[in-house]
Design brief:
elongated; two-stranded antiparallel sheet; binds zinc ion; alpha+beta; three-stranded antiparallel β-sheet; 172 residues
Length: 172
């Protein structure tokens, strides 16, 4: 029986050698996440006096494509259609919305293919002792809901799929 004791500092030296490879992998995950990220959509009202107040408030709301906008319900719809104070609309005039939130609506949406992708970043790896950590971040309105889904909306899983894809490539 022999036992191996690494010379003090050896593990840290190895970690520093491996760090550039971990940096590459971190960047590959970020790249794959950008490829998988859904577009965003932004609610745009006509901006004139006829726009209902709830849609004036929704103007500029940017959400990931797989999610619904959260839009205020008019008081009438809350009293007569059982709507909550807010309802979720896939787009203006969503047929699942209540009449007061949809009928004669002239709002539009604007899609941005890179709305999420541009906010996905790989950060420099950190080495502490024998530990190497690579970090990929994504920030933006409701990106966590987009990744994991909600009770109504399916998960986009762009981060999870990115990790799966890179792991599969590394196994080959
Ligand atoms: Zn509208």
């Amino acid at each position: 029986m022999t036992s191996y004791r690494p010379k003090s500092g050896l593990e840290a030296a190895i970690a520093r050698l491996i760090a550039p490879r971990v940096q590459q992998i971190t960047e590959q995950v970020a790249e794959a996440a950008r490829d998988n990220a859904p577009p965003t959509k932004t609610w745009k009202s006509q901006g004139d006096a006829l726009v209902r107040p709830e849609h004036r408030a929704a103007d500029g709301q940017e959400v990931p494509e797989n999610l619904r906008f959260v839009v205020g319900s008019p008081a009438y719809d809350q009293q007569h259609y059982g709507a909550g104070p807010h309802q979720q609309l896939r787009e203006p005039r969503d047929p699942e919305g209540t009449p007061g939130a949809t009928v004669n609506c002239r709002c539009q949406t604007v899609s941005d293919p890179d709305g999420i992708a541009r906010n996905i970043h790989a950060h420099p790896v950190t080495v502490s002792g024998s530990r190497i950590v690579g970090v990929v971040t994504c920030h933006g309105n409701r990106v966590v809901d987009s990744e994991f889904g909600t009770d109504k909306d399916d998960a986009a899983r762009f981060m999870g799929r990115a990790i799966d894809e890179v792991a599969r490539r590394l196994r080959r």
